Every structure is written in structure tokens, then in C-alpha cells.
Amino acid sequence: MTAAGHNAAGAIARAAANLCAEAGAAGVTVRGVAAAAGVAPSAVIYHFANREGLLAAAHAAMTEAIAEWMADARAASADGRGNGLSAEALAAATAIAFLRDHRAALVALQELNRAALRGDLALGDREADWSRVVRFWSAVTGTGDGAGETGPIWSVILEGAISIAALEVDPIVRDALIVDLVARAGDRIARRPLRTAPAVAPARTPPARPDHPPGRQRIIEAVIALIGEAGVGNLTHRNIAARAGVAVGTVSNAYGDRQAMIVDAFDDLRWRGIDAVILGPAPPRHYLSEIVFTPSGDLRTELALIHAVGAALVRNPDLGGAGPGGLADSVRHLREGMAERWLAMRGIHGVDAIDAALWVAVTAAIVERAICLPPAGRRHWADRAADDHLAALFGPPPPSDGVEE
């Protein structure tokens, strides 16, 4: 390929990456990328063949940009340690800067990982990508080259902290959450006295599944189906009415705005995908695999849709709403309530909201890594990793009663 060809291909890949970050995989089209790159659609087809090729190019471009960012951040963290700054302070500052610079790309990369999980897209060696991430966070935290005991643990904590903080609408709250998570993780790993005494309280009781009238439940099912097909952007009263088999006026009477219907759909998905597992017969030691994966190792539909709602919240913060009852509030309750129940079922009590958020951060990162593995090994790896991190943060769980295996 000529130098001009390389330049054109690079410009197209960067345009695809920008569109993917801004609008998600669904927003990447040949015509849209061509317009953004300032080339003819035929040039896009020439270099990347089809939309799948464009998405793979977008993934590579975002991964390369993050790798370059990490190289600069790694050098800065080394300088910081030379100036006497603590590893935890450097880690929190680096995570905040990463979220500031790559928040949209992070969500897009997670979406592309799920597309690869379904077999819709080939993304190359993602395990190698994760190994590079482990080495980076190990260097930032001064825990070695990633092969030691705490390097991988810190990598999971920080990647997960970035992931769940991305869902916060207010940037000040996002930054403060990361600072608190890093500080609490450091205290937990080092077995230091906690800087904030956790509130000793029983785990929250999971609510019963919402009992909606049949017509309203049909609308909720339609909302869930439409989110699964094309994301939150596909939700119009007309589309929902057609899918639910009701009049448009019925949808308007049931829900005054789109946020309210998304909240109800999200809560229904939460119950199916998470509360039903915790309330069901699954042993606590296998909660993560049961919540996330089918028996064959595929991603459960409920979790894929919950992720789609979270991605929409990152791209459109107005969906989150303000105060109790909004989508952002539902996400927080999902995060904290699920984690408190989970930890209590493993014999860990007296945790507070930061501990709960820390555990969700850990499990979020474990899931992202597990889906990069071959299907047969995903469930076992996820449960084993959850056990390892549970012990690192909260101490060894109580002996098994023999029921879990």
C-alpha cells in the first residue's frame, strides 16, 4: 500500500473510532464514516470491505490510542514516585485522567467485546490487550511487572473503578468515587484500619419482582426487546406501541417520558439477571458465573441489556435524571444493594457503600476479562477470580458447608 493509502486507511479508522465512541457500534456505518473521514464510501469499502471491518478497525484505533496514553502515563507515574508521591495517590490520579480522556472509548470497547463474544466480530488477541493493561497498572501502583501477587489485583480494581465511575453523571462525584475506591482498596489489601468505619447493618433484602398490570408489562417487554435490538435510541412511543401490540395512546398514558419506562425496564432486567440468582438456588460461590453467563458460557441476555442501558447513560447523561427514582439512582441501588447481599451471603458483614461499590468494580472488571476467554473456561475463571479478589480484599471466606460444589 502506498503512503497515501496508509494515510487514508488511518483517517478512516480514526473516524470509525470516533463515531463508535460517540454513538456506539450501532452508529458506525460506511456512509457515516466516509463523511467523517472526508472520503467517498467506495474508499471505505476498498480499505475495510464492510461494516465489520470498520468496527475491527475502530477497535484497533481506540486500543492503539489508549496504549499511547498509557505509555505517557506510565512515565509520569515513575516521575511522581521519584517525587515522593504515594502509589495510591498516583493510581487514583491516573484513573481519573484515564476516565476524563477515554470515557466514551471505554464504553465502546466494552460493546465491541460483547459483539466479539456473540461471534459478530473478530477483534484479534484480546488476552494480549489485557496483559498489557495488567502491566500498566502494576507499574503505576509499583506492584511489579504484573506477575506478582498484588499487581493483577490492583489492575482489576482500577479497571473496574473506572468502569463503574463512568456511569456517574457528575464529574466531581466520578472523581471522588475513584479516590474513595482506591483508598478503601489500599486499606483492605494492607489490612489497615478503615479510614471510614463501615456501617454495621444487615444486607438489603432484595425486592420482589414488580407486579405490573398486563398492559404495562407488555410495554416493558417491548422496551427491553427494542433496547436489545438497537439500543436506547430506538425507543419511540410508536415503536414501543407496535412491538407491544397496544395503541400509542396507551404507551403515553402509562409513561409520561422515556426515562420512566427505561427505569422500569432496567429494574425488571435487574430482577431477572441478578436478584433472581441471589434469591435462587445458586451457591454464593457461583453467583458471578450464574449472573453473567449461560451454562455454555455465552453472555446472558439480561446482562447484555443492562450494559446497553449503562452505555446509554454514559453517552446521554440526561437519561440519568436527578434525585430518587431516576435511572442513575436505579444504577446506584443495583450496585450497592447487590454487592451488600452478595458479600453477606459469603459471610462478610459490616460493609458500607464504598465496600459495596468496590466489590462491584472488581466483578465488573472480572467480567470484561472473562468474556475474552474461550467459552468453555469463562464460568470457572470468573468464579475463581472472584474468590481470589474476595480473599484479597475481605479475607478468606468461611469454610464451605459442602453445598456449593
UniProtKB/TrEMBL annotation:
Gene Ontology molecular-function annotations: DNA-binding transcription factor activity; transcription cis-regulatory region binding
Keyword Transferase belongs to the record: no
InterPro entries: Homeodomain-like_sf, HTH-type_TetR-like_transc_reg, HTH_TetR
Keyword set, alphabetical order: DNA-binding, Transcription, Transcription regulation
Domain HTH tetR-type: 6-66, 213-273
DNA-binding region: 29-48, 236-255
Highest taxon above the source species: Bacteria
The protein, known as: HTH-type transcriptional regulator BetI
Highest classification ranks of the organism: Bacteria, Pseudomonadati, Pseudomonadota, Alphaproteobacteria, Sphingomonadales
Protein's gene: betI_1
